[in-house]
Amino acid sequence: MADRVAEFLEHLAKERDVSPNTVKAYSRDLAEFTEFLGPYFGEGEWGWERVDRLAMRAFLAHLSRRGLARRSAARALSAVRSFYSWMNRQDLVADNPAATVGTPKLERYLPGHLDRGQIEMLFSALQTRAAGGRYQDVRNLAILELFYSAGLRVSELRGISRPDLDLLAGMVKVRGKGRKERIVPVGDHAQRALREYERVRDQLCARLGPGVDRTAVFLSARGKRMSVRSIQVSVTKWLSQVDEGAGLSTHSLRHSFATHLLDAGADLRAVQELLGHASISTTQIYTHTSVERLKRVHRQAHPRA
Fold first, then answer.
1. Which of 95, 104, 283, 292 is a Cys-bridge partner for 70, taking CB atoms 3.0 to 4.6 Å apart?
2. Among candidates 204, 205, 156, which has minimal Cα distance to 183?
3. pLDDT in tens, 266-291
4. Closest by CA position to 1, among listed 31, 27, 23
5. Is residue 304 part of a domain?
6. Catalytic: which of 4, 113, 153, 255?
7. 65 is an active site residue
8. Is there a catalytic annotation at residue 177?
C-alpha cells in the first residue's frame, strides 16, 4: 500500500511539479488514510479497490472525532480524491470512491487585521528603532513595509530573491501557491525602507565575506536566507506591541492590506489579482471586514442616513 502512495507522491513532485508543501501535506493525509483503513477492514489483506463510499464517509467521521478542522478534513479528502484519480488513470482501480463524497463545508471566519491607526503606530515605532542603523531593525522595517505594501504570504516574502525586486519600477515578482508567479506593486514607503535595507545588507555581506547568500533579499545576521519561522518571530514581536493578546501574525498584515484597499474603494477583482487568489470567493471574505466602506456607502446612498 505504501508503495502506491510513494509512486503517487513522486508523480506529484516530478511530473506535475506540485509545490513541496502540498506534497508534504498530501503525504501526511494519505498516511493517516492508510492507517485508518487497516482497523476499518479488520484482520487480513485488503486492497485499494475495496474502499467504497461508506469507507470514505467513515474516514471523514474519524477525522471529525479526532478534532480536525473542517479545512484540514477537506484537504485530506482532496488528497484521497487525487490519489484515486491517479490510480484510475493507471488502471489500478475501477472508480474513485472519494468522488461522490461531499466536501465538508468550510468555516467562514473574519481575518484579524490592524486598523489604520494601528498601522501608523506600528510603522512609527519601527522607523524610530530603524533610525539607529542596527541591521536587524532596518531589515525588520523593510520586511513589515513589504508585507503591508504588497499583501504577501510569509512563504512568498521569504522566497524573494534579488532579481525579483525592481525598486526603480516599484515592482516585485512573487511565487505563490502552486508556484504561480505574479507581479505586485511596491509602494513608496516600502521602497525607501528597502533601499535603506540594501545599504546595510551590503555592509553585512562585506563584513561576513564568502559564504553569504548573495541571492536572497532578506538575510539573517549570519548571512543566510531567513527561515519562515525567523520572519514570523520578528514580525509577531512588533505586532504584539500594537495589540497584545490579539493573536496577530504575519498574515494579519496581508489581511490589513486587502481590507484597507477595499475600504478605499478598490475593485474586488483587482484585489484578487494582487493577493494571488485562484477564486474570487476567497477574496470576498475581506468584504465582511470592510466596515468603513459599508458605512460610507450607506451614508452616501441612503436617503435617511
1. 104
2. 156
3. 899 999 999 999 888 888 877 766 66
4. 31
5. no
6. 153
7. no
8. yes
Q: Which of 175, 254, 255, 260 is catalytic?
A: 254
Specify whether 251 is catalytic: yes
Among 11, 189, 251, 296, the active-site one is 251
User: How far is it, in rounded angstroms, from Cα 144 to Cα 17?
Assistant: 31
Domain count, the chain: 2
Distances (CA, A) of 268 to 139, 147, 175, 275: 32, 19, 21, 11
My answer on whether 80 and 182 are in the same domain is: no
Triad 247, 253, 256: Cα angle to 5°: 100
Active site residue 11: no
Catalytically annotated residue among 11, 28, 129, 177: 177
The span from the CA of 53 to the CA of 61, in Å, is 12
What residue type is 117 in one-letter code? G
Give 194's Cβ-side CA count (13 Å radius): 26
List, for residues 223-267, the tens digit of each pLDDT value.
999 999 999 999 999 988 887 666 788 888 999 999 899 888 889
- The verdict on 77 and 124 lying in the same domain is no
Report whether 250 contacts 140 (CB < 8 A): no
In a domain, 95, yes or no: no
